[in-house]
Design goal:
Largest sheet: 8 strands, mixed
Number of strands: 8
Shape: globular
Strand content: 15-25%
Helix content: 40-55%
Structural class: alpha/beta
Distance between the termini: 62 Å
Number of domains: 2
Strand order of the largest sheet: 3-4-2-5-1-6-7-8
CATH superfamily of the largest domain: P-loop containing nucleotide triphosphate hydrolases
Order of helices and strands: HHEHEHHEEHHEHEHEE
Length: 282
């Protein structure tokens, strides 16, 4: 009788183990299926356009409640920290079409980079002279900044300001005088000279630029840096616009390093709360 009881208990344990194993397999398969569906959607967005990719296994596990627990850290890790010897030093961030909160991607990446590269100097620049926003993100005044640096003669570092966050400094967009064309200023040879000064003054430079598709200025700027990160919104950014932006950048001598998927959550009524956005590197 005792032997039968032991056999029954063993059978129950085996069944429980099988159930747990099956549940884990289903959960893994379900997650893999969702990842596959997302990859397929993103590939359709850029069908015929090749961008660098990083396998998920190359990412460190995020740590909740720290700088590691954000998508911007993953972006910085892929772009700057994975292989410091080959990492770009000067990078442009720009949306394909309309600007919105896309400037946050550049700002947050600069904050993460300054935090995780101890001793390295980082400068974040607002090159969107027509619609500046980085000064508002960091809650400071829009001082002379880039506009002043392009029209002035003082050392370029004097047009930046400390943000009180280690070695991170901001060059805001600044304000052009009435009648001065922002496009002409950004496309001038003066920009080339100032970029050389900035390279000599900072270890890393992150630039928030105007949208790439409708603005030739961004393509001109792209030729002066190590690479461009395009910010797109799946299901909202037209494929043709993304391809056109990439072609313009490469035609000007620039290089597209990759894409950040800026996801827009659709509102479903008052019970769902405020619409949220998130950015994920691809």
């Amino acid at each position: 009788m005792s032997r039968m009881f032991d056999l029954l208990r063993q059978a129950q344990r085996d069944v429980a183990l099988l159930q747990r194993s099956a549940a884990a397999t289903v959960a893994t398969n379900s997650r893999n299926f969702e990842l596959l569906r997302q990859v397929q959607r993103d590939e359709l967005l850029f069908e015929g356009t090749k961008f660098p990719a990083v396998a998920p296994s190359e990412l460190a596990e995020p740590q909740t409640g720290s700088y590691h627990g954000s998508e911007s850290f993953k972006l910085v890790q892929r772009l700057f920290l994975a292989d410091p010897a080959l990492a770009p030093r000067v990078v442009v961030f720009c949306a394909v079409e309309q600007p919105s909160e896309d400037s946050r991607t550049c700002a947050q990446a600069a904050e993460q980079l300054a935090h995780h590269t101890h001793g390295s100097s980082v400068c974040v620049i607002d090159a969107n002279l027509a619609r500046p926003s980085l000064h508002a993100h960091f809650d400071v005044e829009n001082q002379e900044g880039l506009a002043g640096a392009l029209l002035g003669t003082r050392p370029v570092v004097e047009f930046t300001r400390s943000l009180g966050r280690g070695s991170l400094r901001l060059m805001s967009a600044g304000v052009l005088a009435s009648g001065v064309d922002a496009r002409e200023v950004l496309a001038s040879v003066r920009l080339t000279a100032r970029m050389s000064e900035l390279r000599a003054s900072f270890d890393y430079i992150l630039i928030d630029a105007p949208p790439a598709a409708p603005d030739f200025v961004t393509a001109h700027l792209a030729a002066l840096v190590d690479g461009v990160i395009l910010i797109v919104e799946p299901s909202f950014t037209p494929k043709q616009a993304a391809r056109h932006a990439k072609d313009n950048i490469e035609a000007a001598g620039g290089r597209v390093l990759g894409v950040v998927l800026h996801r827009r959550a659709l509102p479903f009524g008052p019970r769902t709360g405020q619409c949220q956005k998130s950015s994920k590197p691809a």
